[in-house]
């Protein structure tokens, strides 16, 4: 099973910038297991959420012609913790895009305060090379992960929301935006 660490995109500028959110709930098993009795989001999963946001931004910049894989994380700094009930805001800026890969500047915010600041490097795998290594299945841009981007695109095209002020998320839940929250 593959885990998705993005609930929805709230802003997406092709080849430039993406903003996504992740709502942390006690329904997520990892919060119970990380520190029993103290439901903290593991830092590695925050990085994974930033990497998924960045990976979609990088992949979409080339119309998903190649598989995008996380190559390395040269820098990751954390300034606090996130717990159940918190909402993380992931902001990823594409800083360098080349045929062999890309670099993004990725930040996670909690209540408007910087929680994590990372640099993430991605590699592009052409289809023939990735098929030799991993087979034809697209293990990076799964249908579930692509649904998150498709919902943002559909919302942008329609110029509106899922209903009177509500936004649909990838898992079918409805999110009522907070006052001043940026939406597509």
Main sheet specs: 6 strands, antiparallel
| Strand segment count | 8
| Count of DSSP H/I helices | 4
H-E order: EEHHEEEEHHEE
What CATH architecture do you see? Roll
Beta-strand percentage?
25-35%
CATH-derived topology = Thiol Ester Dehydrase, Chain A
- C-alpha end-to-end distance: 29 Å
* Overall geometry: globular
Instruction: Supply the helix-strand structural class.
Output: alpha+beta
**Strand neighbour order, sheet with most strands:** 1-2-4-5-6-3
Mean pLDDT: 80
Count of spatially separate domains: 1
| Rg, Å, rounded | 16 Å
Spans of at least 5 consecutive residues with low confidence: 161-184
Write out the CATH superfamily name: Hotdog Thioesterase
Subunit arrangement of the protein:
single chain
**Helix content class:** 25-40%
At the first level of CATH, what is the class? Alpha Beta
If you had to describe this structure to a student in words, what would you say it looks like?
It is a single chain. It is built from four helices and eight strands. With 184 residues, it is α+β, with helices and mostly antiparallel strands. The protein has one domain: Thiol Ester Dehydrase, Chain A, CATH 3.10.129.10. The strands form two sheets. The protein has a six-stranded antiparallel sheet with strand order 1-2-4-5-6-3. It has a two-stranded antiparallel sheet with strand order 7-8. The protein is globular. 32% of the residues are buried. The model is unreliable at 161-184 (pLDDT under 50).
């Amino acid at each position: 099973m593959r885990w998705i660490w993005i609930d929805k995109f709230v802003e997406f500028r092709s080849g430039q910038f993406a903003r996504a959110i992740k709502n942390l709930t006690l329904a997520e098993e990892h919060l119970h297991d990380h520190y029993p009795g103290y439901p903290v989001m593991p830092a590695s999963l925050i990085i994974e959420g930033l990497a998924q946001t960045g990976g979609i931004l990088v992949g979409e910049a080339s119309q998903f012609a190649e598989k995008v894989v996380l190559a390395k994380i040269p820098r990751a700094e954390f300034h606090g913790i996130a717990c159940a009930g918190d909402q993380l805001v992931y902001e990823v800026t594409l800083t360098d895009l080349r045929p062999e890969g890309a670099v993004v500047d990725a930040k996670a915010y909690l209540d408007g305060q910087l929680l994590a600041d990372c640099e993430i490097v991605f590699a592009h795998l052409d289809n023939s090379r990735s098929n030799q290594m991993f087979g034809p299945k697209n293990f990076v841009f799964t249908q579930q992960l692509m649904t998150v981007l498709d919902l943002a695109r559909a919302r942008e095209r329609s110029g509106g929301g899922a209903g009177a002020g509500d936004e649909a998320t990838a898992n079918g839940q409805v999110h009522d935006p907070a006052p001043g929250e940026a939406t597509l």
